[in-house]
Amino acid sequence: MSKQGLRKTRILLFQTEVVSCLLDAAEKLRMQDGFPNAEIFLVCTEVDRETFEATGEFEGIITYSKNGGLRHLRELKQAINQFDPDISSAVFSGRPIFRKPKLLFLALSSPRRFVFDARMDGYWLRLRSFQRMFVRDRQAMAKYSEETGAPLRTLLIETEAREVVEKAIRIIPRPDVVPNAQISLFCGLQRAREFEGNPDLQEIHSYTKENLRSNLRILWSFIRSKPDVVVAIFSGRRIFLKQKMLFWLLPARARLAFNEHNDCAYVTRWNALRLLRIQGPGMSLDTPAGQRLIQLILKGILFVPRFTYLLVWVTLMKLLRAYRLEKIAKYAPPQK
Q: Cβ of 249: how many Cβ atoms within 10 Å?
């Protein structure tokens, strides 16, 4: 007899969204066309445990710490294995939050995985449906946006005129863009004085052409901290090219791109090139400025693998030449 024949279906639901969204997902799972007799167990943060327990919706709850190390992950994995779930489930709305439980959901072995998108439509996770996890729908998630989770460290890189940057600063903290954003601005020293006193900015980091050491120190702090969201404005104008390169090269959990009309979208591998031509001719790749920008980006991305390949090739050639010389010297007749 199968395992399902001996017991109810066990579903392990991972907290990858805010509380109300997870409760809606649990309700969907228990619907008649879903798994009406299922036992649902939850993996959630320590902060939200009491809230979930008060609902009485779950047969068991496992908590995890956001600051836990490898030992904590091993203990968490052992606790999950004790539940022996038949199905793992999670919500992938496209928002850059709850990164660790999303990775945990994908990393743990599970017989089947059932995923909800931003519209709370469920689907079985397969290779052909994998890209649906990255689709973002602001309107569908608007009703959950009032719940603010952990602050999202957002780095805005100055790539346009002051007026355009100020409009972007006002748009970023919107619930349907970057909920609970803590915005830091990276700009020139002269502009930094102009942005002082802006209530939406948590920090201002400035650079100068003369102080290279200070600039490198600031960039290193960005690399070490790895912001949650990096933001830049792409108008198609041939200005701030180095700063635009920095937008693509800095490590970040998500990238948000604006155009000159202050329309914005998160960058994914499927829309990275398309985003450079949204809303108007200024963003088109057909313009000389757009083509030069793409060339600079591709050169920066391809430099490391090309340099590594050349380094490995030269090293192998030198080793091969040394081996041949040693072999020739070994079998060469002795000189009289």
A: 14
Could you give all domains of the chain from N- to C-terminal order, each with its CATH number? Answer: 3-143 (3.40.50), 151-294 (3.40.50)
pTM of the predicted structure, to 2 decimals: 0.53
> What's the CA gap between 104 and 92, in Å, rounded?
13
217-264 pLDDT, tens digit each? 888 888 888 888 999 998 878 888 888 888 988 888 788 999 878 888
